Amino acid sequence: MAMLLRTHFKLARTSIKENRTRSFLTCLGIAIGVASIVLILSLMGGISNLVRSEINEIGSDLIVVRPKSTKDTLDSIIGELTSANTFEKSSLTLSDISAISKTEDVSAVAPIAISTNTIASEKNTLSSVSVLGTNLDFIKIEPLALRYGAFLTENNEENSVVLGHTLSLALFNTINSTVGKTVSIMGEKFMVVGVLDEIDQSISFDNVDFDNALIMDIKSLDKITGSTQIQQINIKAANTDSLAKITDDIKETLTKQKLGDQNFTVAYGDNITHPASSLFTIVSGMLTTVAAISLVVGGIGIMNIMLVSVAERSHEIGVRKAVGASSRNILMQFLFEALILSIIGGIFGLVLGYILAFIISIITPFSPYISWEIIIVSFLTTIAVGIMFGIYPALKAASKNPIDSLKHYR
Amino acid sequence: MSENVLIELKGLTKRYGYGDTESFALKDFDLTIKRGEFIMIMGPSGCGKTTLLNIIGLLDRASRGEYILNGENVAGISARRQASLRAKKIGFIFQNFNLIEDLPVLENVALPLVYTGYPRTARLKNASTALKRFHLQEREYYLPYQLSGGQQQRVAIARAIVSDPEIILADEPTGNLDSRSSRIVMDELKAIHEEGNTIIMVTHNPALTVYATRVINMLDGHIDTDVKTVADQNLPQPISVKIKKKSDSSTEEELPKPHKRHKSRRKK
Fold first, then answer.
1. Residue A278 CB-density burial (10 A; 0-12 exposed, 13-18 middle, 19+ buried)
2. pLDDT in tens, A250-293
């Protein structure tokens, strides 16, 4: 059997070589499909890695409390995407924060409440600016670098704000003389006490784009907007060894605080990235589906060319059968040819996909992510495509009547 | 005696079509072939010669009847078993050679061995030996189109005998050849026969029957005449005029081949 496989392999090689242009074009179809899948998976992997690396940068002492989504399913995630304000009805309150801060081994607790407001300066008025309401602990947990000025302090927290780098430019057309000026939010005036440094990371676990955000005290924000939704509470643990225990303690405290209602989640480590990761999973899933369609098109190309090949080689099939080839031998011969076409296409596609991913990584902040999983998945996919689309032509070849086939002169 | 029987056909019938279009290529055909015979089957077009050859060669199946090959009834065996028997026991020679154009001569000859499970080196070695016999070893790596018709047919004969089959079936092997090539091909077949091989050959050319040990004339799917030409191979006798007349459909040129001259040349 193994010997016959080698013969089939050799035959397929000869046949592919003989129809070079045709084989190349067929492989190209598969290569494009595989390349797009590899490209998407490696870029998505790159993005996930970026998110994960940010968590690592912040430190392993981070615990995050989030209101629980009604259901942690695809539907709810898509629902979050489409609704204007994520976590519209947050279950977290300001009193939860003080409760958590009393928990053992907790060194800092900062809420994150994002709302969208219109902000006016002496020069410009901007609508739809992200306003991040938090407290003084925030800077202890998220080590934001300030370009000018300082973060909120106990003395000025009620009427001060910190601007993101890009926002400062948009409001005042400058960054270096922004500190000390005033901005007004819903009629209330606040003084700018600091401007953040430019942040090169595009994604953060807070879901905040700090470059374009305004940071202020959550109580002040609550006062001017009336109702603040806390989307997340960041907690810094004093002792990194007992994160699980601290997490359990926080859960207990909050459950008590909320009278047994467990409408929140407490996460640490890799679980923090979960909402972002599941979003990427959906997006990459959809993109992969689109790429898979192009792979199917490539597969149809294989089937097409194999059908042509079978028709052209009727005579050869007849001769082979006359000298003793069984239908199975013929089936294997043509299936092998289809398989080799798709595998060659797959290898080309893998290389092409990574080259494209590297080219894209030059323009974008994330580096492509190469893993064995991607290589194995794309390899298995091409084998599946080769068999799926090669089996019909091969069956057709195998079922040919040798007497009729021998009458086929070319 | 019965040990010497290679093929036994009993009541073999091959029907095409149904109802109004029903026709019989073979009808209640009985034939016993002994090992070592050189049988020529003659007859007008459409008398079932090729169908008979295809059924004996396990390329086709009879609608009804028994086919006993080497004591085994092979009329109802699976297609896979048919293929395996074809590979091991049957060698085909065709009018149009039926070589695979994309494969070099050597690999064409080695083709039957692919399906009998020989390793590659053994295949090519055997094929090379077979080609040597037909004085074609220098053309091993030629492609079929680079050879003359006679050479191609010799390659085809080499392919037919490479797996050392029990029966060699030849369907008008000289039909596409000029007289000179025909003679060479027939001489090769005769030599193979003299080594003890069984050959069944279909032909339209009555002149070729000088090579046969038995001439069967078919008409409308059954045997018309069945004549044993010679018992002694060294003294082939000319065919009776009666048979010549029957094969009225023969359109091929007569071979201007005095048998004796050829024979003497071979002895040199």
1. middle
2. 888 888 877 777 777 787 776 666 556 667 778 878 888 888 88
Q: Of A318, A320, A402, which is closest to B111 when you measure between CB atoms?
A: A320
pLDDT at position B33:
92
Q: Give yes or no: residues A18 and A151 share one domain.
A: no
Are residues A155 and A31 both part of a single domain? no
Please indicate, yes or no, if residue A60 is contained in any of the structural domains. no
- In this predicted model, what pLDDT tens digit does every residue of A360-375 receive, in sequence order? 888 877 777 878 888 8
For A15, which residue in chain B has the nearest alpha carbon? Answer: B102
| Confidence band for A349, pLDDT divided at 50, 70 and 90 | very high
Locate the chain B residue with the closest alpha carbon to A319.
B98
In this structure, are A196 and A126 located in the same domain? Answer: yes
Between residues A175 and A340, which one has the greater pLDDT? A340
ipTM: 0.83
Considering the domain architecture, whether residues A159 and A233 belong to the same structural domain is answered as yes
Structural domains counted in chain A: 2
What's the CA gap between B15 and B63, in Å, rounded? 6
Helix (H) or strand (E) holding A129: strand A125-134
Q: Is A327's CB within 8 Å of B80's CB?
A: yes
Q: What is the pLDDT of residue A127?
A: 83
Q: Among the three residues A234, A262, A290, which one is the final residue of a domain in this structure? A: A262
- Are A403 and B120 within 8 A, CB to CB? no
- Determine the Cα–Cα distance for residues B98 and A315; give it in Å rounded to an integer: 8
The two tokens of residue B146 are 């680079």
Residues A207 and A301 in one domain: no
Q: Tens digits of per-residue pLDDT, A294-324?
A: 889 999 999 999 999 999 999 999 999 999 9
Quick check: is A269 in a domain?
Answer: no
Q: What is the pTM of this model?
A: 0.69
Query: Whose CA is closest to A333, among B111, B157, B156?
Result: B111
Q: Are residues A284 and A385 in the same domain?
A: yes
Could A329 and B83 be called an inter-chain contact, meaning their C-beta atoms sit closer than 8 Å? yes
A233 and A342 share one domain: no
Q: Which residues of chain B have a CB within 8 Å of the CB of A316?
A: 100, 102
pLDDT beyond 70 at A96: yes
Domain extent listing, chain B: 36-62+77-267
Q: Flag residues of chain B having pLDDT under 70.
A: 1-3, 230-268
| Parent domain of A316 | 2-52+278-406
Chain B interface test: which of A10, A319, A331, A407 (most B C-beta within 10 Å) = A319
Q: Which residues of A touch B143 (CB under 8 A)?
A: none
Cα–Cα distance measured from residue A317 to residue A309, given in angstroms and rounded to the nearest whole number: 11
Closest partner residue to A3 (CB to CB) among B99, B100, B117 is B117
Strands (DSSP E) contained in A171-281 are 182-185, 188-196, 213-217, 232-237, 264-268
d(CA A92, CA A76): 19
Residue among B100, B123, B145 with most chain A CBs within 10 A, to mutate: B100
Q: Is residue A72 part of a domain?
A: no
Supply the pLDDT for residue A67: 79
What residues pair up with B219 in beta bridges, in sequence order?
B222
Kindly state whether residue A326 falls inside one of the protein's structural domains: yes
The pLDDT of residue B76 is 87
The pLDDT score that the predictor gives to residue B168 is 94
Tell me, which fold does domain B36-62+77-267 have in CATH?
Rossmann fold (3.40.50)
Please tell me if residue A403 touches chain B, with a CB cutoff of 8 Å.
yes
Higher pLDDT, B151 or A104: B151
Q: Is A337 near chain B, with CB under 8 Å? A: no
Together in a domain, A175 and A241: yes
Last residue of a domain, one of A233, A262, A291: A262
Please tell me the predicted confidence (pLDDT) of residue B231.
45
Is the sign of the CA dihedral A377, A383, A385, A388 positive or negative? negative
CA distance A305 to chain B (A): 18
